């Protein structure tokens, strides 16, 4: 979408809501997040705070993220950096009792990137059978669905979700989803057919297998690169006392194997699998979130071994509340201690010539402390320490430094 048109639409919406508020500000009401049910990561798209006006069927919301950081790699630093990482707007509408619309528009790094991450209509037929169509966020892992900044204690998004898997990865398509509640359990599924990857996952400026490069192909919102659908499926279950377990798969053909009916290559696939787990330890209120993913890409024989056929990686977050209560005038604030551990192997395998291990792996530890003056706002201080080993296994380059910032719904 062209920027002037997008800005015009947003301006009209904001002016409309402002005018409605001037008529009678008491009509403004905030729809809180639902905390009464057993919610899953797939519910995150609607489980957000929205602001609506009277009986108008349209509600708006969003979140903002900004931060400062000072990082250095092997003693070399770019100094103090201030960043406005993203501003995200939600627009939702209940068209009828069983037809809903939601859009998510994200502005990254000021307006360096403007993306429609979600814009779909949901038709609710039965709790176990619902149709979704439009711009869909492919549910690979948990982070891709549940990525809002205010929900996380860390400034950086997980490396495995953003640089191995394509975070906030959206495509045009259709699919089905459903849920079943039974006592302390909830069972759910999602399955979608959408446009998918292209050959940029191996033909890119990174000079390695890099799935996020395919996000540069904005044509995927109007046509498929090769005419083959991408299949994304996920099943999840949650127990009230134990937590949520999710298993997901995303795969399809990524190359252009024919041109004007002429076969020019065999069909080459990319297949990804992910498992995610979320839980809270009742005795200590310790929150645990983990995700592990596998990537397999059919690489042409003409490519060198620096292009990995297999990649694995994941992360684990542990968040421990250490103080609850009034602080600086905020009655229900919470201070958390947190730590994230991350690992990615960009090229899992061995060299053909020597049989030695192909390295190119990444490891990171990020301790931090956060303050939540309200449940919808978080102020974060992180210390990041990374080890990055190249493909030959040379001594690791090390990155370290502090990050400070905030993220808030509005």
UniProtKB/TrEMBL annotation:
Domain of life of the organism encoding this protein: Bacteria
Protein name per its UniProtKB record: Phosphate-selective porin O and P
Gene source species: Chryseolinea serpens
């Amino acid at each position: 979408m062209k920027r002037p048109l997008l800005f015009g639409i947003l301006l009209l919406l904001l002016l409309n809501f402002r005018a409605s508020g001037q008529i009678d500000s008491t009509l403004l009401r905030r729809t809180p997040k639902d905390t009464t049910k057993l919610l899953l990561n797939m519910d995150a798209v609607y489980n957000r705070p929205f602001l609506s006006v009277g009986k108008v069927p349209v509600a708006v919301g969003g979140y903002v993220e900004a931060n400062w950081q000072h990082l250095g790699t092997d003693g070399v630093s770019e100094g103090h950096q201030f960043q406005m990482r993203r501003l995200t707007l939600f627009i939702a509408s209940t068209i009828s009792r069983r037809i809903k619309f939601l859009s998510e528009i994200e502005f990254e790094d000021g307006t360096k990137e403007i993306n429609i991450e979600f814009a779909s209509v949901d038709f609710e037929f039965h709790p176990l059978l619902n149709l979704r169509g439009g711009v869909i966020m492919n549910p690979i892992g948990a982070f891709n669905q549940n990525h809002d900044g205010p929900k996380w204690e860390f400034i950086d998004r997980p490396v495995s979700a953003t640089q191995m898997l394509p975070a906030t990865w959206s495509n045009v398509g259709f699919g089905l989803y459903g849920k079943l509640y039974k006592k302390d359990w909830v069972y759910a599924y999602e399955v979608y057919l959408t446009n998918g990857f292209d050959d940029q996952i191996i033909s890119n400026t990174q000079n390695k297998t890099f799935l996020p490069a395919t996000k540069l192909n904005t044509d995927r919102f109007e046509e498929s690169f090769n005419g083959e659908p991408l299949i994304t499926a996920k099943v999840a279950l949650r127990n009230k006392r134990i937590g949520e377990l999710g298993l997901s798969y995303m795969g399809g053909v990524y190359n252009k194997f024919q041109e004007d009916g002429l076969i020019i290559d065999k069909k080459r696939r990319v297949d990804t699998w992910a498992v995610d787990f979320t839980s809270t330890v009742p005795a200590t209120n310790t929150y645990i979130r983990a995700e592990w993913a596998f990537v397999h890409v059919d690489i042409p024989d003409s490519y060198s071994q620096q292009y990995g056929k297999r990649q694995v990686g994941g992360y684990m977050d542990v968040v421990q509340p250490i103080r609850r209560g009034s602080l600086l005038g905020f009655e229900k604030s919470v201070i958390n201690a947190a730590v994230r551990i991350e690992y990615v192997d960009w090229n899992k395998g061995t060299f053909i010539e020597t049989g030695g291990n192909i390295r190119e792996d990444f490891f990171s530890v990020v301790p931090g402390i956060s303050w939540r003056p309200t449940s919808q706002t978080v102020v974060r201080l992180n210390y990041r320490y990374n080890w990055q080993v190249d493909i030959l296994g040379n001594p690791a380059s090390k990155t370290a430094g502090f990050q400070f910032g905030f993220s808030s719904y509005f």
